[in-house]
Amino acid sequence: MERSEKGIAGVVLAGGQGRRMGSVDKGLREFRGRPLAAWAIERLAPQVDELFVSANRNVEVYAGFGHPVIGDVVAGYAGPLAGLHAALTHAARPLLATVPCDSPFLPADLVARLAAGLDAAGATIAVARTGGRLHPVFCLCRRELLPGLADYLARGERRFETWFRAQRAVEVDFDDEAEAFVNINTVDELDALG
């Protein structure tokens, strides 16, 4: 993919508690011989100009993947929006793409397609959609959303979709790549796909 002249940052969100995976660090669970997060990093890195990993534990292990590791500014494992907030705080680029650490098959053209949708709609955030189902953690947003997101989190709000719907948003169809958005939340799913 040709990189944007403006520049796009990316973040792999690996800062959760992994409750459905037995409260282990999900991004470090092995999938086909490699940590789950390694697959997401490998897919996202060529699509962006700088890459972060959002993690709140095992920071030294995540640092071994070769990208800066950032932790949540908001305490208490506040969910993917806290990872987005931390990345927007650190990123110098005007655009930021997010992906979860548990989706090893994410599209190789994810960022390009989200950017095209964002620009065409004059939106502040673009979110992937397949078969009418939103995948809000697969998004591209403008850095200008940071102050409003900080306020939303400061009020104790955590729901990604509620926040997303309050923005100038666009949904981008990926119906041709629905399988690319499979995420692995449980040990059974890990075993089934492994």
Supply database-style keywords.
two-stranded antiparallel sheet, Spore Coat Polysaccharide Biosynthesis Protein SpsA, Chain A, 7 helices, single chain, 194 residues, disordered N terminus, alpha/beta, seven-stranded mixed sheet, 30% helix, globular
List strands and helices in order, with pairings.
Elements: E1 8-13, E2 30-31, E3 34-35, H1 36-44, E4 50-54, H2 59-63, E5 69-70, H3 80-90, E6 95-100, H4 110-121, E7 125-130, E8 133-142, H5 146-154, H6 160-165, E9 169-173, H7 187-193
Parallel strand pairs: 1-4, 1-6, 4-5, 7-9
Antiparallel strand pairs: 2-3, 6-8, 7-8
Helix pairs in contact: 3-5
Overall average residue pLDDT: 87
Number of helices: 7
Main sheet, how many strands, which sense, barrel?
7 strands, mixed
Q: Which segments are poorly predicted (pLDDT under 50) over 5 or more consecutive residues?
A: 1-5, 17-22
Assign a percent range to the helix content.
25-40%
Order of helices and strands: EEEHEHEHEHEEHHEH
Number of strands: 9
Strand residue percentage: 15-25%
Radius of gyration: 15 Å
Please, what is the CATH homologous superfamily? Spore Coat Polysaccharide Biosynthesis Protein SpsA, Chain A
Q: Structural class given helices, strands, pairing? A: alpha/beta
* CATH topology description: Spore Coat Polysaccharide Biosynthesis Protein SpsA, Chain A
Q: Largest sheet, order of strands side by side? A: 5-4-1-6-8-7-9
Query: What would the principal axes of the Cα set say about the shape?
Result: globular
CATH level-two architecture: Alpha-Beta Complex
Domain module count: 1
CATH C-level = Alpha Beta
Terminal Cα separation, in Å? Answer: 28 Å
